[in-house]
Amino acid sequence: AVVSTQSGHYGRGDDLGEKVRLNSNTNCLGARKLIHFGSVFKNKGSKELFAILFTDTLWITRVDKGRYGNKPIDIDARDFDSIKFETYRDPFLLNNVFPTESNKNSADLAFSFSYNDRNYSFTCQTAKEASDWVDHLNDGIRNATLLYHSHYKTSLPDPTIAGQATITLRIVEGLELALPPDEKPNSLFVQASLLSHVQKTPTGAPKWDHTIHFVVGDVSTDKINITVFKENSFSPNVSLGKFDLSIQKLLKTGGPGPWNKRLILTDTNSGMVNVCIMLRYHGNR
Fold first, then answer.
1. Which helix (DSSP H) or strand (DSSP E) does residue 250 occupy?
2. Beta-carbon neighbour count of residue 198 at 10 Å?
3. What is the pTM of this model?
4. Using CA atoms in the order 267, 269, 176, 236, what is the torsion angle rounded to 10 degrees?
5. Is the dihedral of CA 77, 59, 98, 202 positive or negative?
6. Could you tell me which residues come within 8 angstroms of residue 128 by beta carbon, excluding any fewer than 6 positions away?
7. What residues contact 122, with CB distance under 8 A and at least 6 apart?
């Protein structure tokens, strides 16, 4: 992937499973902003690289050394529009990055972190540069992790609230989903919500076979919102359609189930979700 900064864009990743516009919105952290950048070196082999830290990602790139000769890479943010950075490896998502203990040594020339159970370490030309990287990276990790988990927090029903009934929803599979062009159906999930309670299936191919439960306060008015999403890493998730499931309408077809339903999604050109639903009343009803 080439990280291009032409036309005011910080870049685009073409080999990452999705199109990435680095001057656009992140997955769930708002607008992507440039935090820090600079020349770094691999610990093994002393290969010079260029690191770029955004609010959601850390990119390790290569720069054509022709314009610098034997001098260290020295780039100002104003130069970004005239330079193409080639990605050295896939970018690091900050919500999955963990600083290591070695970062506590203020005299160290390196900064380190772990990512997906692998350790990474990069060396700077001075201890001051390494310290700046540690500070900016730690702040970025803290902010990204907090906002990411807040955004994707699952809100389960309060067990102290009895409600009228419990509804069990087995989300079986999605059919004829309207995926974006050239997208593979391997990072899809369903999010279901009832009032403030939110649950989701695992992410994967659209054969989830996943069961969730909600406490129903009022069977005559409560509705479950069901939305299918294409999950992205570097940009907002894409809705592939939704369905508002009325419990009252279900009961009119003969309750309390089980009901095997094929839900036709709205706000999309095509798409259905197969579900199995069961309602269990509380008390003696």
1. helix 247-252
2. 16
3. 0.77
4. -50
5. positive
6. none
7. 40, 41, 42, 43, 49, 51, 60, 110, 111, 112, 133
How far apart are the C-alpha atoms of 266 and 272, rounded to whole Å? 9
d(CA 276, CA 262): 9
Mind giving me the DSSP string for 17-76?
A: SS-EETTSB-SSSSB--EEEEEEEEETTTT-EEEEEEESSEEEEEE--GGGTTTSPP---
Q: How far apart are CA 15 and CA 233, in angstroms?
A: 13
Q: 10 Å Cβ neighbour count for 163?
A: 17
Helix (H, G, I), strand (E, B) or coil at 193: strand
Helix segments in 68-171, DSSP class H: 127-151
What are the mean pLDDT values of the chain's consecutive 10-residue runs (285 residues total)?
46 59 85 91 83 93 66 63 77 92 69 93 92 95 90 65 84 94 86 91 95 92 96 92 95 86 96 96 70
Phi-psi region of 79 (alpha: psi -120 to 50; beta: other; left: phi over 0): alpha
Largest CA distance in the chain: 83
Please state the separation of Cα 113 from the chain's center in Å. Answer: 20
- Spatial neighbors of 51 by CB under 8 A, at least 6 apart, are 37, 38, 39, 40, 58, 59, 60, 61, 122, 133
Q: What is the DSSP letter of 283?
A: T
